[in-house]
Amino acid sequence: MHRQFLKNETARLSILLLLIVFTAFFMNLGGAPLFDVDEGAFSEATREMLISKNYITTYLNGIPRFDKPVLIYWCQLASVSLFGQNEFAFRLPSALAGALWSFSIFAFMRRETGNRTAFLSAALMALSLQVLVISKAAIADALLNCFIAITMLSLLNHYRTGSKAALIGAFAASGLGMLTKGPIAILIPATASCLFYLQLKELRKWFSLIFNPHGLLIFLIISLPWYILEYQDQGMAFIQGFFFKHNIDRFNTSFEQHSGSIFYYFPVLLIGMMPFTGLLFSVTFRLKTLIGNPTNRFLLIWFCIVFAFFSLSGTKLHHYIIYGYTPMFILMAKSVSPETKTGLLSLWPLLFLIILGSLPLLLPGLAEQAKNGYASSVLRAAAENTGLPFMLLMAVTALIVLAIQFLPRWSVEMKLIGTGTVFALLINLFIFPLAGKLLQEPVKEAALLAGKARYKTVMWKVNYPSFLLYSESLAERRDPLPGEIVLTTADELEKTGKKAVILYSKYGIILAKIMN
Using omega within 30 degrees of 0 as the cis cutoff, is the peptide bond preceding 275 cis? Predict the structure, then answer.
């Protein structure tokens, strides 16, 4: 029976996809401290939920946090209850969401495209740079992407087969998405499916689909109770904070200085899809052929809606564009053929590795030119922690990527997956820990020191929610008084001229006692 199982193509590809997913999302999951601001904020809000036993309203530093609905916090709460309060536990829900996201693509698309193209779609997605990063981050976006993908692929399945179960599945997934990040989980599927049925001149069918009574009931059963309970707990503060500030205002204005031009997402797309960026152009060259197929039109509309909506939004964050990655990776996999020249496709990852490898030569100069003292400290630390070994690592990685393209017995698909796996290993085992060491290790070490000494700390002109998590305490954000302990940066301390006893200092992060 075991041999028969392995002879089955679906089983073999499922096992291979499982290995890819483990490499991309789970390998070294706890290998770096939580990154601020987002990872620190989500994880600290979960810690405060655990302490307060208030499982409806989330708090950050003792203040209600209306940024996101509650599902990601419940997931993190379950994880830390099982594995303790550590980086692995806080990130585990995102990694699991990434895994479900990948297998959803494989399961839904193998009926449409066959096993191999469905497998390649899921593998390309899992091994791409931006998806790999977001599925290791202790934030809500991997979970939301998973639910948006399931919603959209279920709608596609319903269009192709008329399956009532697929339609109910779409409503259930959108309900979970609504509980993860709010109205965006409805907006993308509703808008994309409306445009799809509109171009089919079947808008009446779309209305009957979108207002399906059984589907709406499932959606409301899943999503509505928490919204009612949260309103009862917080009243209009919740409506103003969540719906108006964190949804409407994010589109209308530049929120928290996250702005950018209408072309913001073009470079994000090119970098985020590494090392498979070259396949974007394969899709572009085949557009005329692709749009002849209704499924492909559905996928293109999905991607274009996401790209256009967030390009027009006042607030721009790099991970917003990932909501449209699923259809693009499916189209990229469809564009691959035995004639695809992987040598040309490898130019993008090779260029990326060359740029990374040259950083040790550029960092000292960049540190000198940096106007911000903290940035200068981090750049100097980066120069000290890279150097020749880092350059050699990038060179060896580039040679391996290049060598893969010349393996005679490897198919085009295996060369692409091999390149992606090499990239995933590089990111997870070297880049990810290095970034954590430079940016977050000082904050964690300062927090552990403050927590052990039971300091009542003031965060002075900085915002590091992870400090609250690691110190297991709250901290006011204000100017300090004489005698108080502060977390700040070296340049802020120098600018004010305040005398202080330095308790901890590393890479520009300072924990100090103010003397005057």
Answer: yes
